[in-house]
Every structure is written in structure tokens, then in C-alpha cells.
Design a protein that fits this description.
Elements: H1 3-7, E1 17-18, H2 21-47, H3 51-59, H4 61-73, H5 75-79, H6 83-87, E2 90-92, H7 97-120, H8 125-149, H9 155-160, E3 164-166, H10 177-218, E4 233-236, E5 242-244, H11 245-249, E6 267-269
Antiparallel strand pairs: 1-3, 2-3, 4-5, 4-6
Helix pairs in contact: 2-4, 4-7
Length: 279
């Protein structure tokens, strides 16, 4: 029986359970985003310095980033977890100071030294590139194994035997199905819009081209009697031929259409494109 159990003191480790795969991946994502925020803040601070200082800071930028990484890793010593794990209430069991140091060396210090080695000696570029490629391939293979079997989320965690645990047993709680249904409906509606929008734009462009072509073919720019642009255009109700009002009203054939001789020649104001001739 443990020391806490004998004295009747609650030990948080007693309720710790192995973390789910999604929690472990989310913790790594949060750690990466926190690191990116710190690095972007460093970049902004450097950009505010005078130009003469910026040149020196650019040369020492890898060392500055290493210092930021070391500052972030100090939280693991007293918390037993990374900043991302702390947000999700996840921790490493048995995360001693020695393991923190080894974890930092493998995950942060070694990549920094390899990058600096390439900067100092260009002939090592090919060797470092092959080493990084082999490491990336091994990490991808381990990641696929982790998705299938669970366990250690990274290859380094497997080497150091660092397993993620929840401080308290997770509970399902009450599921709000209304919110889930609304979220599902919204995502479905969004996907439908993304699918139909290009079809709508294509149909709209085709319709505009067809309507412009039809309007051009049916439009009459000049009066067939005077040969000039319409002045007070009117059209014959029966056949639709358009003329200037004074041309047909004062002409000899005002009782019938001058073009098709349709009777009776009842006039009305011209509509559509005939009122607005092309420029």
C-alpha cells in the first residue's frame, strides 16, 4: 500500500489513466502552436530593433530560438508535462529531471546542432540530409503504428518510455445532440455550397452570354424609315416592328406597317433594347 493510501490522503496518480490517441496528438499540436507563437513574437521583436542590431540578431537567431525552446521546456521539470499537455490535463508518468534533459537533447538540441553543422561545414550537408530523411521515415512509420495500435505517440517517447496519462479519468458527460445536429447540418450545407457554387457560376456565365447574343440579334439600332437613331420609338402591336414616332405618324403608310403591311397599325411605346440603342 502506498504512503498516501496509508494516511488516507488523496493521490492524483491513483485516478490517472492512459490518455487517448486524440488527446496525445492534440497536445503535440498545441505545443507546436505555442512554439510558433513564441518564435513569431521573437521575429517581431527583432524587426523593431535598429538595422545595425538586426544584422547581429539574424546571425544569432538559431541560438535565440534555442533559448526560447529551453525556456518552454523548463515547465516540464516542475509540472511533469509540456504546455500543450497542461492545457489538456495530460502528463508524463515518471518524467524525472533526467528524462526531461534527455528528451530536450534529442528533440531540440540535436536538430539545432545538425543545422549549425551544415552552416559551419557545407560538406556535411548530404550526410545531414540523409540522416534527417531516415529519421523522418522512421517517425512516419511509428506514427502509422501509433494510429493503429496506440501507445507512445512519438518515436522519442517510445525510446524514453514516456507514456501520456490523464490526471483524472475522462467522463463522457451529457451529450448535447441539438448542438451536434446543428453543427452537422451546417457542415453539410457548407459542403453543398462549395459543390454547387462553381456550377451556378458556370450556368450564370452561359446565361449572360446567351442573353447578350439574343438581345444583340433582336435589337434594332436605327429607324428603318429615316435610317437614324430612334427618336421617341414606337412599335406596331401586331408585328413588333419599331419606328420613330414622327416617321410613321407623318408617313403615307400610317394605317399599316411599312415593312410587313400588317393592319391595323396600332402603335405603342417601344420596349426593351430598342429604347437603348448600342453606342
Amino acid at each position: 500500500m502506498c504512503h498516501f493510501a496509508r494516511k488516507g490522503i488523496y493521490n492524483p496518480m491513483d485516478t490517472a489513466v492512459k490518455a487517448l490517441r486524440v488527446e496525445q496528438l492534440d497536445a503535440h499540436v498545441l505545443d507546436r502552436e505555442i512554439r510558433d507563437i513564441v518564435h513569431s513574437s521573437l521575429e517581431e521583436w527583432i524587426s523593431t530593433l535598429p538595422t545595425a542590431f538586426q544584422r547581429y540578431m539574424d546571425r544569432a537567431k538559431p541560438e535565440l530560438r534555442l533559448g526560447c525552446e529551453a525556456a518552454l521546456w523548463t515547465t516540464r521539470i516542475y509540472a511533469g508535462s509540456s504546455p500543450g499537455q497542461g492545457i489538456l490535463d495530460v502528463f508524463y508518468r515518471g518524467y524525472t529531471t533526467r528524462k526531461v534533459a534527455v528528451h530536450f537533447v534529442i528533440s531540440v538540441l540535436v536538430p539545432y546542432l545538425l543545422k549549425r553543422l551544415v552552416d559551419w561545414r557545407q560538406d556535411t550537408h548530404r550526410l545531414v540530409e540523409r540522416l534527417e530523411g531516415a529519421t523522418t521515415l522512421a517517425n512516419i512509420a511509428h506514427y502509422l503504428y501509433f494510429l493503429r495500435k496506440g501507445g507512445f505517440s512519438t518515436l522519442v517517447e517510445r525510446v524514453l518510455r514516456l507514456r501520456n496519462y490523464n490526471r483524472d479519468a475522462p467522463s463522457m458527460g451529457n451529450v448535447n445532440l441539438d448542438n451536434q445536429n446543428r453543427e452537422l447540418l451546417w457542415h453539410t450545407f457548407r459542403d453543398l455550397i462549395v459543390l454547387l457554387w462553381p456550377i451556378y457560376r458556370l450556368a450564370e456565365n452561359r446565361w449572360l452570354k446567351w442573353s447578350q447574343k439574343t438581345a444583340t440579334s433582336e435589337s434594332v439600332d436605327v429607324c428603318p424609315i429615316c435610317g437614324e437613331v430612334f427618336v421617341a420609338p414606337v412599335e406596331v402591336e401586331l408585328c413588333g416592328h419599331a419606328f420613330c414616332y414622327w416617321c410613321i405618324a407623318a408617313g403615307p403608310s400610317r394605317n399599316s406597317c411599312p415593312i410587313c403591311a400588317s393592319t391595323p397599325c396600332t402603335l405603342r411605346p417601344a420596349r426593351g433594347n430598342r429604347i437603348f440603342p448600342r453606342e
